[in-house]
Amino acid sequence: MTLEVPSSLPRTRRTAEHKVFQNEFIAVYNDDVLIAGAFPAQFLRIVEREGKPGAAVLARCRGQYALVLNDRYPTGDWEWGIPRGFAHSGDPEHTAREELAEELGGLPRELVPLGIVTPNSGLLAARVHLYLAEFDAEVAAPVDSAEIAMVRWIGLPELYAEIVDGRITDAFTLSALTQATARGLLG
């Protein structure tokens, strides 16, 4: 059985678009909408990089997985997670390769698409493409040390233990692991 959405369900639709903020990364809108096609309301919507897709990459080298440490200002915490980033172009694979070069300091031998995640579909108009990258060597030479504080390569049991213990909470890491597991790619 597949999860299908009946075409007869009423949709929320935009009646007016109001851009309230924009910088090089995002545009914020406070749109007038009709919920279920009938009830007037306003909805905040954040569009990243003009709607171009970002990328997040589960990097693997001989059974070890790369994590990068970032100081995440919005949450006020250090966060371990997989390499990821805003769109570098309209091509998510190009973005994935650029992020790996920037955050790990190298390029993979192979890049396998895993799927797409919508990180917060109640607020963000973003789709992020997920990939599994196969490396021949455990590279750990970030180009921008102001963005990436550290790189660690760890085994899958340790990665799962970090998740269970609540030390890895990054949604992209959890999503990429779920996609790779569902596709039978983690062995």
Automatic annotation (TrEMBL):
Residues 55-162 form the Nudix hydrolase domain. InterPro entries: NUDIX_hydrolase-like_dom_sf, NUDIX_hydrolase_dom. Signal peptide: none annotated. This is ADP-ribose pyrophosphatase YjhB (NUDIX family). It comes from Paractinoplanes brasiliensis.
